[in-house]
Design a protein that fits this description.
The protein is mainly beta and about 210 residues long. The chain has 3 helices and 12 strands. The chain has a 7-stranded mixed beta barrel with strand order 4-10-9-7-5-11-12. Strands 2-3 form a two-stranded antiparallel ribbon.
């Protein structure tokens, strides 16, 4: 059995959404043995949407579901990796129709994003009609290797369409080394209370 770590490394130099300085993680050494302290300790400040993470409806709608009642075993389950490396802009319903996607599937969308080491303002995303197609099929979740599932779509229709239908969204996967096909996903979050996203560590097993 092969295992693939498809998680982004959190660091001060990692790519963040739109290269916003405010979204860059900050590591601060607050205790150092070299300076006379008895231990080394580090504070880390970062946005909960940093790197690989799951979005909650609270992200796009006030008063909506947050992380508070989240079952951390939710993402220990079968998934399908779908290869869209040939897509140049956004994944549409016509692209998705070329794949064997069934009701209840949790699909991970592999695109050119996985090959990028820096933030690309023209990253590949899931178009609104693609989100609607997946919602109508009744998938259980959608993951993508971009830092957002949509790119400057007014009103965040892809988020709303998926979330309004109870479909999970995972962003920031790294799928470059993973071939299209079925896998078992083991994805566990930080257990943070009442927030709009949770950072994930994601492993795929074939």
């Amino acid at each position: 059995m092969a295992r693939y770590d498809v998680t982004m490394l959190v660091s001060e130099t990692m790519p963040v959404y739109k290269n916003k300085v405010s979204k860059k993680p900050v590591f601060t050494k607050v205790s150092q043995i070299a300076q006379g302290a008895s231990t080394n300790e580090t504070d880390v400040h970062f946005n909960v949407h940093t790197g690989t993470h799951v979005d909650f409806p609270l992200h796009v709608k006030s008063g909506a579901l947050s992380s508070r009642a989240f079952d951390i075993t939710t993402f220990i389950r079968p998934v399908k990796v779908l290869d869209f490396m040939d897509v140049k802009d956004g994944i549409s319903s016509s692209d998705l129709k070329t794949k064997n996607i069934l009701k209840g599937d949790f699909v991970l969308l592999k695109t050119q994003n996985s090959a990028q080491e820096v933030f690309d303002f023209n990253f590949i995303y899931l178009k609104a009609d693609g989100a609607r197609y997946l919602a109508d099929l009744g998938v259980s979740g959608v993951g993508i290797d971009g830092l957002g599932i949509e790119r400057d779509q007014r009103g965040h229709p892809s988020h709303h369409t998926l979330m309004d239908n109870g479909i999970w969204i995972i962003e920031g996967l790294r799928l470059q080394a993973v071939k299209e096909g079925p896998y078992r996903m083991v994805a566990l979050p930080l257990k943070l209370d009442d927030v709009d996203a949770l950072p994930l560590t994601v492993i795929l097993e074939d």
